[in-house]
């Protein structure tokens, strides 16, 4: 059994602690705190379990994962449960499953598999594009704009890092050209969020309310935080502050110092992933690690950016911190993949 | 094209992390470090609400501590909409108990425009039966509450209502003028309630609470309790007030008893009056219209302005005696009428006549011809001077709002307001208290206090003392001399002689039935075709007077002003029987 690097372990434990402490301090329903604790414990078990096999064996399961993912996304649209104007969950007895979260990891595996295969470059491009369009559309339909954007970003980076640059640029060009069409496809609330992002005061009691209250919360934390005298988050002026807006609670309670600490933990996480990426020669492993890197980096930036008013409001959770089972487990699975690649890297590199 | 080389890719990844995290740090620095204070204040404003705690209003009591206005507990039915489980069932039950239709309950909730966690008043002042029935079923009525508040209650109903006044909800102007008031406050609208509002209302308390995003109170941060208002003791003796109330009956009129030694009003009735409790509970338009048509809101004792009739005659006599027009021994032959400026002025006893009269006899008989004669000889200036010396035409300064001043007509006044010259006839009319002269009943009472006290008038007042809830006297009325008139001792005794003799001419001196001497003067003022107002003003005893009494009836149905004497006798008997100080 190979060891998990200590700094990463500490960073993950610290993030988990911040998550639980914040949920506790914002006085959310106690059952949420218990559940989140459970998710974190399961998460660490998943990471442990994932170290027991060589990631290369996942290649045999890629198609199974892929089609299971598609089936789950279709199930969401058919029998799913709605919340906050979107239908993103499947109700299981004890747990509401959010397939779009897991779909991010499935697609990372899928694209990595295609790009590391023996197909010609043009075939890789076409297969991968076809492969992600269906799940991306299903997720967009829920609607979950945030996850769609993350999947798209992951795909762009993998394209940029694996194939000839012309494919990357053709996708960028095509995306720019299709913006007018995309605007038509956006739901009114999504358009309003974009407009509100540009000017939160446009609608201070409507869609701008979240942003303004979140800004006040973060700013009110000042340098050292308001700790247990926090009001914006404990008195629910910031809506759903335990999930997507959890950073506003951290900003208010722990101030600039606490926010810097959180960013430092993410810094450790991301630098570790880059380090793993650098040390690898196996393309399948490299693409997986890159995909996970992009997933985390976009989620961290978009989520915190949203809480501090520099990114539009989208339902993207903050990795390892926001409350939510699907997102927590997805984060642990993703870091598990990176760790697996890290642990088996020497064998693989020699094997090459 | 070609692919990125490995070096570039790694550098790109590091750059992405550093730039993105750098952007977040810069933005956080801007929000939390540079603008932290601003957002901190915003967050405080978001969550802290300051609420005013309303004090309990002070009581009003009579001079012996009998409660005239107090606060009674009121059980109010309240609904918190978000706590109601089964609207249909619960409202149907409530409706059957309090007799308000279900739709009306729903309407009240809708129109309150309050958040769904707020207590909305459905009905005030539930009866005991209603309270018991609702409380019995409270378990089946989630969201329904019976809360205890208070309401102003006047136990003597319409008795002394013109003095007490009443309270009512504040107006927008009240709130704008004085930050003390909240939209739910009550304020004194009339009478003592209005005059001593600042003493009665107490001091607001304050509570600072923390609220959550939906406005619910989470924590009390700071609380300063409200201080109850001061209790006000009046100079009124409710026993005398009730006695006068009885004497006036359901006629339109005024009755006053006051202490000539210090100006304390012992009782003051103005009828018709109103039951102030009606305003607290909500008065119907019909009842209100009836009160308006009766002028029930006018305190006739201080706001009604009437010709004084013969009660004015002592002023004319004093003016004449002082000027030397007559002496106490002068005898004038009085025919049954006199011609002035081509018009015939009759004596009230016409076609009979009084014949030879000295001032004492003339005052006792109230001979109009005598007073026409001396009035014309003395001249309007001197009469006006004495009227003013006695404080007519000027507010008495009683501690009640909206007192009227009356009117002493002068040649100049007539020129300006009527546009005519002053004729001798006007002087004649003024001499017997007719014409343009207007007085309030209280002014006449105070004028006779001046006679009784040999020229000293005390400011009439109703406040005896104000006592704080802890029992400390915060305000006490010290007697104040309203005015002092330098009078020749002999002249004032002549007037008193006349007034004392007058008593004997009324029902065989019935006013003295209390067991001592008395001075009195009647008056009959013509106020329209076949309409007269009757006056009787008296004080007793003549030496060291203890009480001044006044009776006045508007459009009187008494056969003559002398008929008021038995009423005055009863009032004095009552006063002396309870040991008038």
Reconstruct the topology from this structure.
The complex is a heterodimer of chains A (352) and B (581).
Chain A: H1 6-25, H2 30-50, H3 62-79, E1 81-83, E2 86-91, E3 96-97, H4 99-115, H5 121-141, H6 145-162, H7 165-177, H8 179-185, H9 188-198, H10 208-220, H11 246-279, H12 283-307, H13 325-351
Antiparallel strand pairs in A: 1-2, 2-3
Chain B: H1 6-34, H2 36-47, E1 48-53, E2 60-61, E3 67-79, H3 87-98, H4 102-112, E4 120-123, H5 128-136, E5 144-153, H6 161-164, E6 167-169, H7 172-177, E7 186-188, H8 191-195, H9 197-200, E8 205-211, E9 217-224, E10 231-234, H10 238-248, E11 253-258, E12 265-271, H11 277-281, H12 285-293, H13 300-303, H14 313-323, E13 332-334, E14 337-340, E15 343-346, E16 355-357, H15 359-365, H16 368-378, H17 380-389, H18 411-417, H19 424-431, H20 441-452, E17 456-458, E18 463-467, E19 473-476, E20 481-484, H21 489-505, E21 519-528, E22 531-540, E23 547-553, H22 565-577
Helix pairs in contact in B: 10-22, 14-16, 14-17, 15-21, 16-19
Verbal overview:
- Chain A is mostly helical.
- Chain A is 70% helix and 3% strand.
- In chain A, strand 2 and strand 3 (96-97) form a beta hairpin.
- In chain A, helix 4 runs parallel beside helix 13 and helix 10 packs across helix 11.
- The mean pLDDT of chain A is 88.
- Chain B is of the alpha+beta class and 581 residues long.
- In chain B, the strands form 7 sheets. In chain B, strands 2, 3, 4, 5, 10, 18 and 19 form a 7-stranded mixed sheet that branches. Chain B has a 5-stranded antiparallel sheet with strand order 12-11-23-22-21, with helices on both faces.
- The longest helix of chain B has 29 residues, at 6-34.
- The termini of chain B are far apart.
- Chain B is built from 22 helices and 23 strands.
- The A-B interface holds A 160-166, 169, 213, 215-223, 226, 231-232, 235-237, 239, 251-252, 255-256, 259-260, 263, 266-267, 270-271, 274, 277-278, 293, 297, 300-301, 304-305, 308-310 and B 1-4, 9-10, 13-14, 16-17, 20-21, 23-25, 27-29, 31-33, 35-40, 42-44, 46-47, 210-214, 218.
């Amino acid at each position: 059994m190979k060891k998990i690097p200590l700094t990463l372990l500490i960073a993950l434990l610290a993030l988990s602690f911040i998550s639980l402490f914040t949920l506790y301090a914002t006085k959310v329903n106690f059952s949420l705190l218990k559940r989140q604790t459970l998710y974190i414990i399961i998460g660490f078990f998943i990471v442990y379990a994932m170290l027991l096999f060589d990631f290369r064996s996942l290649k045999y399961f890629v198609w199974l994962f892929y089609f299971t993912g598609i089936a789950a996304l279709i199930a969401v649209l058919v029998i799913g449960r709605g919340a906050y104007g979107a239908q993103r969950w499947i109700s299981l007895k004890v747990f509401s499953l959010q397939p779009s979260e897991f779909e991010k990891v499935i697609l990372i595996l899928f694209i990595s598999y295609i790009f590391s295969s023996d197909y010609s470059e043009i075939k890789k491009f076409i297969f991968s594009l076809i492969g992600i369009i269906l799940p991306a559309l299903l997720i967009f339909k829920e609607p979950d704009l945030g996850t769609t954007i993350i999947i798209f970003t992951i795909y762009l980076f993998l394209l940029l890092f694996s194939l000839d640059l012309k494919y990357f640029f053709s996708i960028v060009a095509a995306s720019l050209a299709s913006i007018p069409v995309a605007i038509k496809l956006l739901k009114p609330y999504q358009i309003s969020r974009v407009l509100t992002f540009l000017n939160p005061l446009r609608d201070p009691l409507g869609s701008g309310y979240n942003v303004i209250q979140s800004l006040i919360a973060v700013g009110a934390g000042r340098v050292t935080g308001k700790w247990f005298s926090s009001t914006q988050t404990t008195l629910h002026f910031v809506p759903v502050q335990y999930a997507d807006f959890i950073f506003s609670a951290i900003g208010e309670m722990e101030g600039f110092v606490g926010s810097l600490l959180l960013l430092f933990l993410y810094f450790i996480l991301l630098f570790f992933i880059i380090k793993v990426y650098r040390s690898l020669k196996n393309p399948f492993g490299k693409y997986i690690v890159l995909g996970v890197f992009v997933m985390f980096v976009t989620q961290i930036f978009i989520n915190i950016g949203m809480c501090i008013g520099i990114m539009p409001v989208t339902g993207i959770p903050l990795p390892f911190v926001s409350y939510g089972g699907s997102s927590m487990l997805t984060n642990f699975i993703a870091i598990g993949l990176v760790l697996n690649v890290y642990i088996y890297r020497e064998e693989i590199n020699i094997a090459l | 094209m070609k692919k990125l080389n490995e070096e570039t890719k790694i550098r790109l990844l590091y750059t992405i992390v550093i730039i993105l995290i750098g952007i977040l740090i810069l933005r956080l620095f801007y929000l939390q470090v540079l603008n932290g204070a601003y957002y901190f204040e915003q967050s405080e404003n978001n969550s802290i609400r300051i609420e005013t705690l309303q004090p309990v209003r002070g009581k009003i009591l009579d001079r012996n501590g009998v409660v005239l206005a107090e606060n009674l507990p009121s059980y109010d039915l309240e609904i918190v909409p978000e706590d109601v489980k089964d609207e249909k069932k619960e409202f149907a039950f409530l409706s059957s108990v309090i007799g308000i239709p279900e739709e009306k309950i729903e309407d009240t909730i809708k129109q309150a425009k309050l958040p769904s966690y707020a207590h909305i008043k459905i009905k005030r002042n539930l009866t005991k039966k209603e309270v018991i029935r609702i409380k019995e079923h409270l378990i089946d009525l989630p969201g329904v509450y019976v809360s205890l508040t208070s309401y102003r209650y006047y136990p003597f109903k319409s008795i002394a209502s013109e003095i007490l006044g009443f309270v009512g909800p504040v107006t927008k102007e009240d709130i704008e003028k004085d930050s003390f008031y909240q939209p739910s406050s009550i304020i004194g609208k009339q009478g003592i309630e209005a005059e001593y509002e600042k003493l009665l209302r107490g001091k607001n308390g304050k509570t600072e609470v923390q609220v959550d995003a939906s406005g619910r109170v989470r924590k009390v941060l700071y609380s300063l309790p409200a201080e109850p208002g001061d209790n006000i003791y009046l100079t009124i003796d409710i026993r005398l007030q009730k006695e006068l109330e009885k004497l006036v009956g359901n006629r339109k009129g005024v009755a006053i008893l006051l202490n000539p030694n210090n100006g304390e009003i012992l009782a003051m009735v103005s009828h018709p009056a109103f039951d102030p409790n009606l305003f607290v509970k909500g008065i119907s338009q019909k009842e209100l219209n009836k009160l308006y048509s009766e002028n029930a809101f006018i305190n006739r004792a201080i706001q009604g302005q009437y010709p004084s009739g013969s009660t004015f005659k002592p002023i004319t006599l004093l003016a004449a005696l002082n000027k030397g027009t007559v002496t106490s021994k002068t005898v004038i032959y009085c025919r049954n009428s006199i011609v002035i400026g081509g018009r015939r002025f009759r004596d009230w006893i016409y076609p009979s006549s009084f014949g030879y009269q000295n001032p004492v006899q003339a005052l006792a008989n109230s001979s109009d011809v005598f007073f026409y004669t001396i009035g014309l000889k003395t001249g309007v200036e001197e009469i006006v001077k004495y009227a003013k010396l006695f404080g007519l035409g000027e507010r008495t300064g009683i501690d009640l709002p909206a007192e009227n001043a009356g009117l002493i007509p002068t040649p100049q006044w007539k020129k300006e307001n009527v546009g005519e010259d002053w004729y001798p006839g006007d002087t004649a009319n003024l001499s017997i208290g007719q014409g343009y002269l207007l007085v309030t009943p209280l002014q006449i009472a105070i004028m006779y206090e001046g006679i009784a006290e040999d020229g000293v008038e005390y400011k009439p007042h109703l406040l005896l003392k104000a006592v704080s809830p802890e029992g400390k006297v915060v305000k006490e009325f010290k007697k104040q001399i309203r005015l002092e008139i330098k009078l020749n001792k002999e002249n004032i005794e002549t007037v008193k002689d006349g007034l004392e003799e007058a008593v004997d001419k009324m029902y065989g001196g019935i006013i003295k039935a209390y067991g001592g001497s008395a001075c009195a003067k009647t008056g009959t003022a013509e106020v329209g075709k076949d309409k007269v107002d009757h006056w009787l003003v008296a004080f007793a005893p003549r030496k060291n007077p203890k009480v001044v009494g006044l009776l006045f009836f508007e459009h009187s149905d008494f056969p003559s002003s002398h008929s008021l004497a038995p009423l005055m006798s009863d009032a004095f008997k009552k006063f002396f029987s309870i040991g008038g100080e």
